């Protein structure tokens, strides 16, 4: 693809970042993120970048910015879509506020649309930045803490099938089927390859806190009806901590058994689970909510609709709808303007340009927030972020976009 100079900063060029410059790119990323990883982690990052779509910002021959996209697919209501995972987005401190990030994302968006990738996603290091580029809060997460100095009080009976401790090397093959079934059941989940399991979930040394144990993997049932991936930490001056990284279950009773297990581990006093879904059944079947507390809630995966029409046509709908949407997208003008979204069980979905007056007007970032079912269009109207010209239009759209389970993502990248 041709180099794209940005009009406001003619000195900067935006072009493919070749594989020969991966070490240079990592040096830039570590400068921007104030990191100094060990050789093993650096090698892992280099391998990740090798498999990415990569764009560099150049000031002459100097690499001053970069952005990459991992080749994911994402579960959406009724199916899945190609969804590049935007990562390693950074600009040299000497080149801030010169349009580098704008140019990088414009080039990346162009490459994604050329590949017919209708959506993209990222985890935002600074959430205030990416809304300007059309990303909306696609999923949210909760941090949950459990006092495990006493048995976990439950309102339901846990599944009594035996638990098995798995060798992490065997876990991907044993657990992938169950994880894949959760992707069909809940929007917002990325595909996990065998390598992703091994290098992101089951790596022996935790890159963020080396004081934690290697990963422990426990499954219930054969084949697995549920599993938990966790690490432990015990200090001389503090009670032991169990950190739950991932817990999936095909039924509430299986989930109850897994939570009961992690809260009963000897020499520990607290369980902390980061990135749980906002509708986690634990929050309902826990008998004592003073024992099980939500300590934080946060935006998780940010979603960008690169091709609004394709994205809307390739998801399912929970109710009939016929509404004219006026979407505003300053970065990808092809998405803008009034379009009629319609769906019926007989005729399927359609999204076509129209000259009819808009029933509902909103920014593309806010439509992205609604896309997986995590945000209601009614809430946008109530917050002053969408304009409803036709009474009831937001409610009709909300009913159509509704999902049975809240969107959820725990895979960071």
TrEMBL record:
<comment type="similarity">
    <text>Belongs to the acetyltransferase Eis family.</text>
</comment>
<comment type="subunit">
    <text>Homohexamer; trimer of dimers.</text>
</comment>
<dbReference type="Pfam" id="PF13527">
    <property type="entry name" value="Acetyltransf_9"/>
</dbReference>
<feature type="binding site">
    <location>
        <begin position="89"/>
        <end position="91"/>
    </location>
    <ligand>
        <name>acetyl-CoA</name>
    </ligand>
</feature>
<dbReference type="InterPro" id="IPR016181">
    <property type="entry name" value="Acyl_CoA_acyltransferase"/>
</dbReference>
<dbReference type="Pfam" id="PF17668">
    <property type="entry name" value="Acetyltransf_17"/>
</dbReference>
<keyword id="KW-0012">Acyltransferase</keyword>
<dbReference type="InterPro" id="IPR000182">
    <property type="entry name" value="GNAT_dom"/>
</dbReference>
<feature type="binding site">
    <location>
        <begin position="97"/>
        <end position="102"/>
    </location>
    <ligand>
        <name>acetyl-CoA</name>
    </ligand>
</feature>
<dbReference type="Pfam" id="PF13530">
    <property type="entry name" value="SCP2_2"/>
</dbReference>
<dbReference type="InterPro" id="IPR025559">
    <property type="entry name" value="Eis_dom"/>
</dbReference>
<dbReference type="InterPro" id="IPR041380">
    <property type="entry name" value="Acetyltransf_17"/>
</dbReference>
<dbReference type="GO" id="GO:0016746">
    <property type="term" value="F:acyltransferase activity"/>
</dbReference>
<protein>
    <submittedName>
        <fullName>GNAT family N-acetyltransferase</fullName>
        <ecNumber>2.3.1.-</ecNumber>
    </submittedName>
</protein>
<keyword id="KW-0808">Transferase</keyword>
<feature type="active site" description="Proton donor">
    <location>
        <position position="130"/>
    </location>
</feature>
<dbReference type="InterPro" id="IPR036527">
    <property type="entry name" value="SCP2_sterol-bd_dom_sf"/>
</dbReference>
<dbReference type="InterPro" id="IPR051554">
    <property type="entry name" value="Acetyltransferase_Eis"/>
</dbReference>
<feature type="domain" description="N-acetyltransferase">
    <location>
        <begin position="12"/>
        <end position="157"/>
    </location>
</feature>
<dbReference type="InterPro" id="IPR022902">
    <property type="entry name" value="NAcTrfase_Eis"/>
</dbReference>
<feature type="binding site">
    <location>
        <begin position="125"/>
        <end position="126"/>
    </location>
    <ligand>
        <name>acetyl-CoA</name>
    </ligand>
</feature>
<feature type="active site" description="Proton acceptor; via carboxylate">
    <location>
        <position position="413"/>
    </location>
</feature>
């Amino acid at each position: 693809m041709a180099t794209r100079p940005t009009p406001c900063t003619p000195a900067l060029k935006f072009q493919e970042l070749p594989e020969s410059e991966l070490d240079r790119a990592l040096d830039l990323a570590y400068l921007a993120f104030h990191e100094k990883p060990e050789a093993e982690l650096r090698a892992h990052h280099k391998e990740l970048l090798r498999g990415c779509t990569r764009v560099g910002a150049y000031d002459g021959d100097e690499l001053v910015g970069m952005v990459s996209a991992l080749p994911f697919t994402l579960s959406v209501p009724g199916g899945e879509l190609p969804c590049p995972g935007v990562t390693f987005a950074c600009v040299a401190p000497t080149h801030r506020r010169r349009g580098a990030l704008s140019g990088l994302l414009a080039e990346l968006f162009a490459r994604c649309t050329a590949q017919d990738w209708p959506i993209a996603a990222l985890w935002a290091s600074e959430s205030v930045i990416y809304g300007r580029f059309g990303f909306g809060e696609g999923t949210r997460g909760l941090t949950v803490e459990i006092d495990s100095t006493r048995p976990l009080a439950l309102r339901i009976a846990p599944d009594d099938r035996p638990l098995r401790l798995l060798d992490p090397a065997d876990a991907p093959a044993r657990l992938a089927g169950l994880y894949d079934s959760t992707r069909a059941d809940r929007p917002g989940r990325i595909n996990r390859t065998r390598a992703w399991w091994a290098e992101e979930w089951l790596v022996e040394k935790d890159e963020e806190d080396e004081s934690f144990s290697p990963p422990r993997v426990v499954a219930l049932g054969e084949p697995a009806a549920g599993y938990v991936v966790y690490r432990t930490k015990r200090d001389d001056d503090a009670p032991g901590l169990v950190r739950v990284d991932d817990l999936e279950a095909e039924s509430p009773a299986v989930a109850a058994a897994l939570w009961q297990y992690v809260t009963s581990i000897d020499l520990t006093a607290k369980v902390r689970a980061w990135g749980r879904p906002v509708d986690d059944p634990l929050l309902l079947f826990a008998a004592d909510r003073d024992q099980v507390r939500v300590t934080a809630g946060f935006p998780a995966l940010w979603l960008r609709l690169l091709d609004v029409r394709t994205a809307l046509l390739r998801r399912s709908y929970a109710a009939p709808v016929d509404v004219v949407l006026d979407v505003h997208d300053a970065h990808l003008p092809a998405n803008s303007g009034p379009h009629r979204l319609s769906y019926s069980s007989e005729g399927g979905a359609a999204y076509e340009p129209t000259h009819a007056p808009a029933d509902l007007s909103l920014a593309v970032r806010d439509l992205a927030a609604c896309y997986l079912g995590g945000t209601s269009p009614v809430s946008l109207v109530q917050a002053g972020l969408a304009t409803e010209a036709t009474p009831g239009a937001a409610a009709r759209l909300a009913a159509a976009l509704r999902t049975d389970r809240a969107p959820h993502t725990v895979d960071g990248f």
